[in-house]
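Crash report, auto-generated. Payload:
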Amino acid sequence: MRRKVVELPETDHVEAGEQAPDFTRPLVTEAFWEDIALSDLLDDGPVLLVFHPMDGAFPTTYVYNEFLDRGILEGPAQVVGLTISTPYDHARTIEEEGIEAARGLYADPANEVADVYGVTHDLDGMTGVEEPRLSLFLLEPDGTVAWTWVADAWPQFPDYDGLEDALAGL
Amino acid sequence: MTQSVPEEPASVDADLTLYRLQGCPFCERVVRTLQDLDVSYHSRFVEPLHSDRNVVKRLSGSREVPVIVDHNTGVTMGESARIVKYLYRTYRGGR
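Recovered output after restart:
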């Protein structure tokens, strides 16, 4: 499908084969939120770290719907979302999207984690607001990036087939 | 819905877990006491709506916060006045 999109500037993002930078942020689940390090999650197995636009934006809904349709939340990687929305927004999103099977959604209103990963997106028309650009990082339990996909246009949707192949190869 | 209470993150090395509601004065009272006594704690935040607090109910039998889980003594306890009294009794001598 061809559509008009805005190209995003080139970015020096974390690449496959590199070590994923560790961070701690509040991770929101259906039950509560608490500070959790990415390394805590990796102790339990591989992680699919999904940077996405703020809760409520349609690309966010589309991505989670596709994950649900393809059964990606069921494993073999723990699916972890991350965006600038607050824990309260995340709690509502988990319920509304029906994504309780995800490991959780990280809240990072300052967008600092996306900056460390090289995947920020300055929002046109929303002064002072930036969010992550849509990007996926599939992480081995030792924190190595096994596979990644980073949007280079807005809006643009992930290579879901490539993701499924990468998940099968874990 | 999971029926158990999840374990603390492995990287957390705190004396106790505090289930709290943002801005709740009873919870802040417990926080102040923990800080005064220099007791380390890990926070778990629940939502204002009582029906969204099943994890607290599974712990203490009620949906009220604050609730503490003390990993040193195995004590799980609600009600801020009771918690504050317990903390002073248990930790006044310092850690």
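Post-recovery validation: Residues 76 and 95 of chain B are 19 Å apart (CA to CA).
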